[in-house]
Amino acid sequence: MIGKLEQDQRVRLDWLQIIAVLGLLAVGAAFIHSATATNEVFASRPWFRQPFFLHIVYGLVGLAAATVVCMADYRWLARWSLVAYWACMLLLLGVFVVGKEVYGARRWIDFGPVQIQPSEFAKIGFIFMMANFLSRPLDELRQPGVFWKAIGLMLLPFLLILKEPDLGSALLFLPVGLVMLWSAGAPQKWLIKLVGGGVVLITLLLVDILFAPPSWRFKLEDYQRRRLLVYFGMNFAANAPEAERARLRREQRAHSYNVEQALISVGSGGWLGKGWGQGQQITLGYLPRAVAHNDFIFSVIAEEKGFLGSFIVISLYSVVLFTGIRNAAQARDRLGRLLAAGVVTLLFSQIFINIGMNIRIMPVTGVPLPLLSSGGSSVLCSLIAMGLLQNIHLYRRNY
Amino acid sequence: MLIFDQLKKNDPQMRTLTVVVLAGMIVLLAGLWYVQVVASRRFVEDQRAQAYRTVRIPADRGKILDRNGVALADNTANYRISLYLEELPRLFKEEWRRIRPSHPLKRDERIALESIARYRVASNLCFRLSQIVGQPISLSGEEFKKHYQAQLALPLPLINQLTPQQVARFQEQPIIPPGLDLDVQPRRFYLYGTTAAHLLGYLHRDNQSREGEEADYDFRLPDYSGKVGVESAFNETLSGRAGMKSVLVNNLGYRQSESTWVEAEPGTNVVLTIDLSIQRAAERGLQAALNNTRGAVVVMDCRDGDILALASAPSFDPNRFVPRISHEDWAVLTDAKLRPQINRAIQENYAPGSIFKIITAMACLESGLDPNQIMYNPGYIRVDRRRPIGDTAPPGDYDFKRAFILSSNTYFISNGLRAGVDRILEISRALHLGERAGIPLPGQEVPGSLPKPGEKPVEWREGDTANLCIGQGFLDVTPLQMAVMTAAIANGGKVLWPRLVDKLVPQDPLMAGQAWVYERARVRGTLPVSQRTLGIIRDAMRADVEEGGTGKAARIPGYTISGKTGTAQVTDPRGRVVDHTTWFASFAPFEDPRYVVLVMVESGVSGGNTCAPIAREIFEAIRKRDAGFTLSSAQGDSGVHGRRHP
Q1: pLDDT confidence bin for A385, thresholds 50/70/90
Q2: Which residue would you say has higher pLDDT here, B282 or A223?
Q3: Which of B34, B96, B297, B518 could disulfide-link B311, Cβ–Cβ 3.0 to 4.6 Å?
Q4: Can you tell me the distance from the alpha carbon of B646 to that of B644, in angstroms, rounded to the nearest whole number?
Q5: Minimal Cα distance from A340: which residue of B?
Q6: A213 vs B638: CA distance, rounded Å
């Protein structure tokens, strides 16, 4: 394995991608620092336990993990995909047993010094499993049994994570799974039917949630329903008595608060921003401090560095995504191609949902921004995914 | 190129994926460009609206000075200690941890308990402060809550008007309790209390924006505006332009920092023509005359119309209105009989009584009366077959001078009837009786009234003219109008506009050159009377004081005063005499008339008894002042001299 690497002395790594990834990590650490500098909870900690430093540590750990991932041919790694997938599913189940409850949701498992978020690892496990499962001859993919098995592999983590509840993370599995199915060459008719059916179902669900009388409604977590209502700008108590309406309106304001503040952060940044560490939305606490350094890290960058900063971040992500697609296109086999497509779709979905949420074109969901948001599991898994892309690049087809 | 690598190859799926990702990134960039570049201003304003609070800072109010630059209304420092709430959240939190129960609370209960914790912290600090300054300080829960909810970004004043000892004790504390700090606020102060109170007026709390100022403020610091008097009439001038400061607040509303956006422009000083020493003498004189004197004094410079004193009794203390007046004080102010708020010198109508005989005398002399002609006075006079009008002057033979100094009704009625009502009214109109004298205190001056013989519902009779001749009947004047009349006699027939405000001077000494000076000696008209007539009247007035007339009580040896007394009857609607208004109109010195002193006292005994002595006191004060001036100017000269030649 290692000998093989040494055989080809040429620098075969995708350096452009690596530089973009390192750039994103550095930007992440810098602005996590700026987002938490005035946070009393973090400021009282020693420097080596502050989020920006932890981000660097996780980044280094992640880079190490990525290197390890690169050591072995991805085809060899793929043999372990079944194990990885089911281990992740076990962890997801474990969340319900030993999970730590935060804000009414069980998303973390506490391992003493570190807490992990199994849903992040499940994403990698799922991509591995899916790629391995789908990299079979095309004829087999045309069998309904295989097709539905693949759908089942996708729905299992989706439902488990939905139950946590974490709608945002759960939803990510759908585009990733579908794109992988489609890239693998599954019959397009079926996919179109599936997606079409899904869209109709979701539309019906939304109509039901938004307009139907309470007894007819699909059971959704209260906060999810409210978030949706807020996103669609609806008064969620049209027929309630005045006092009740006032209370709900207050609640609605509280719920739309984060988005509004994020939007003010982004918008007030202007062309060049207010400068690093100068963001008023954070220093004055309008952008809630609990989310500024993770889900809303982008709004911090946008406020302090303006459109220029946004543009640079988008450009770095674009480099990562397009090199990822190139990796997929250049992969030596379908397994590599599917793995890369899955990783690219996963990253793209997260980026689009998270940044879209900051400018109000997407609803608020707790999806972290890969490599920028503070959070060990997310950084680690994103870097493992990047390692995977490098791995595919290393063992790519020779021209 | 990165992107086109895939597009070139025959790989439809990756090509589609590329297009989708590219489209997604372009959508994000377009959205960001819209939010950050196109619509940025809106969000900047949103941010400003949520993070900045504007505070109106009232300007330093201009002073009101007397003609010599002595401050009548000034600003003093009000030392106060305020609670700066933004320094307390940690204490609030600690207190809340201490008092919270172990079981979980509902939202409402928690909010209520947090509010209690905050109040406990504040009232503890209050207690510590009261121990430091040695004075109990109370802070009610309601007060604190109201401030916390409505004005969190502003400090909460706990104690006002600290004594110098208290300030020292507070500052000498080794550790000042958290959140407490000393600051200074200007406070209006009327140095001489009741002196010239009617002229100065008083302030009332008014935080509103003045015209031409920013109208939208989140908070306003306490400000005042004038209610009556000069404070009200010159409110715009005195109050200057308020400044604006902005307070940056965090998401909880606590103050983070503040900066001044617009400096307040201090108000302009108003310099009056009043002379403090004369004004005080006038008020002393009035006060000493009777128990609870109701009266007025006008002292005027007959050469240029400057009002040197404009006193009205009883007076009030305008300091009582700052910060707000108590109920007891208000009850005194609204007493129906004393009516201390009325400026009796200009705001009340009176019958002039015998001092009006000055006008009657002018009419008679102008229509050919020989002052030396002797006339017999039987002690009464009957006109129109009405009941006879009595004469306070004894029966006997009278020439003009004797009739004037003994104020004979018979003489002036019979000669006045001969001169005719039109003549009398012509001179009255030349003196602008029945019109306002243009004192710049809107709403505080009444015009008085003159009879209009042609327009009276009932026919004008001889008896009405007879009444007019002795200053009774359909005639109302103000003491100021009588002072203007006396001045016209003294200065040779010039009817002057009285001048109350000398100039407006900016407070900044560098800008003092830009003072606005009101025109001096504005002549409103001339008396249609010969100098001979005026000379005869001046001489008769001199005789009234100097030669044992009714005004002899005003006499000062070595200083020739000329005067005329008056005692007007006040009748009820049925015509019965219920009271007297007593007058003394005078000027001095006779040889070179300069000062007009007009005294009016309600319910006095008689003009000679009640008012003339007051006038004498005032003239004495004037003499003393003039002597002092010569002395001090002499000293000033020698001082300059000394510096030149050390």
Answers
A1: very high
A2: B282
A3: B297
A4: 6
A5: B14
A6: 101
The tokens of B28 are what? 């994000």
Handedness of CA A220, A224, A229, A232 (dihedral sign): negative
Per-residue burial over B367-399, b = 16 or more CB atoms within 10 Å of its CB, e = otherwise:
eebebeeebebeeebebeeeeebebebeeeebe
Q: What was the ipTM of the complex prediction? A: 0.88
From A3, A130, A6, A16, select the one nearest A390 (Cα to Cα). A16
How do strand B52-57 and strand B255-262 relate by DSSP bridges?
Answer: unpaired
Range of the domain at A285: 2-394
- Contact state of B36 with A302 under an 8 Å Cβ cutoff: yes
CB–CB contact B6 A268 (8 Å): no
pLDDT at residue B88 in the model: 86
Q: Please judge whether B28 and A302 are an interchain contact, meaning their C-beta atoms are less than 8 angstroms apart.
A: no
Q: Does domain B54-272 have CATH number 3.90.1310.10?
A: yes
Tens of pLDDT, residue by residue over B454-476, are 776 667 888 888 889 998 888 89
The answer to whether residue A183 neighbours chain B at the CB level (below 8 Å) is yes
Quick one: fold of B276-633?
A: Beta-lactamase (3.40.710)
- Nearest one of A266, A381, A281 to A313, comparing CA atoms: A266
Give the DSSP letter string of A187-249. Answer: -HHHHHHHHHHHHHHHHHHHHHHHHS-GGGS----HHHHHHHHHHTT--TTTTS-HHHHHHHH
- B198 token code pair: 């009617």
- Number of domain units in chain A: 1
Express each pLDDT in B175-193 by its tens digit.
Answer: 888 888 888 888 889 999 8
DSSP B556: B
Which residue is closest to B37 within chain A, CA to CA?
A: A270
The tokens describing B426, both together, are 């012509």
- Asked if B547 and B338 count as a contact pair (C-beta separation under 8 A), the reply is no
Task: Taking the CA atoms of B147, B151, B153 and B157 in sequence, report the sign of the dihedral they define.
Answer: negative
